[in-house]
Amino acid sequence: MKTISAAIVRSRLVELITDCLIKPDKAVTEVLRNLSDAPAATVAAKLIAQNNDIAASERIYACQDTGQAVFFVKLGDEISCKGLHNAIVEATREAYAAARKSVADPLTRENTHDNTPPIIETELVSGDALEISFLAKGAGSENMTKLYMLTPADGKAGIIRSVVEAVENGGRNACPPLVVGVGIGGVSETACRLSKLALLRPLGERNARADVAELERELLEKVNALNIGVAALGGKTTALAVNMEVAPTHIGMLPVAVNLQCHSLRHGTVKF
User: Fold this and answer.
1) CB 3.0–4.6 Å: which of 85, 133, 260, 264 could bond 174 by disulfide?
2) For 40, phi and psi rounded to 5 degrees?
3) Do residues 230 and 176 lie in contact, with contact meaning Cβ atoms separated by under 8 Å?
4) pLDDT recorded at residue 12
């Protein structure tokens, strides 16, 4: 059985988190830098790209909302990593030491003062590899998340209607241009998890399934026809991508989760 040091995991996660918080997705920045759209939207896009350049150069946070730390852990069943959970928590505490303290009890609103605990989603897989993905999820976009418990009779038309409705109702408040994550299938929490996993995909990369990829293309076209645009200033660039992940579901269900991600897309992955 392969053994991985928790200390090494912690060290590499601190580097990953720190880097992500000051350097939003490079592909997003490049699209915004070269965007040609409605005049006001074009100016806003270039200002966002300039902001990201300054953040990277000065090593400061690209957005004041450094988000809640979300981790997706793929843990091989031939791996031994004693203290893995604590390594992730401590890495979050260390990497967020200078960041805004944004985690609080949901009822008392008492702040934890160190941005812990992080959200840790763990998937057990076969093999001897460990892969950890990080996503910083700010409140502005996360608050616009929608879960639709459709029926099989709603079908593809229901999925399209739900995604477009979610963007139309929440897109202006989620700091567009967006990356729209869509999760379909499983049970309710499966769909929500998949909708966030979809945000980790490289910009411009389609789902490997041809029918899903075609639905992504169709949805991106419909979402961009809403004329919300960059910074809600109008134009044809409401979303940069619609990424969809699917999982088998019960014959009587069709869960659809829509997770809107702002232009400050901060994510990365480390493998051991």
Assistant:
1) 260
2) -65, -40
3) yes
4) 98
Instruction: Say if CB 101 and CB 78 are below 8 A apart.
Output: no
Distance CA 177, CA 41 (A): 10
Strand 68-76 with 79-80, pairing:
unpaired
Read off the pLDDT of each residue in 203-232 and give the average, rounded to a whole number: 98
Q: Are 112 and 103 in contact (CB under 8 A)?
A: yes
67: left (phi over 0), alpha (psi -120 to 50) or beta: left
Q: Give the model's confidence band at 1: pLDDT under 50 very low, under 70 low, under 90 confident, else very high.
A: confident
Mean pLDDT of 149-154: 98
Q: Scan for tokens 């390594």, then name that residue.
A: 87
Tell me the whole-structure pTM to 2 decimals: 0.95
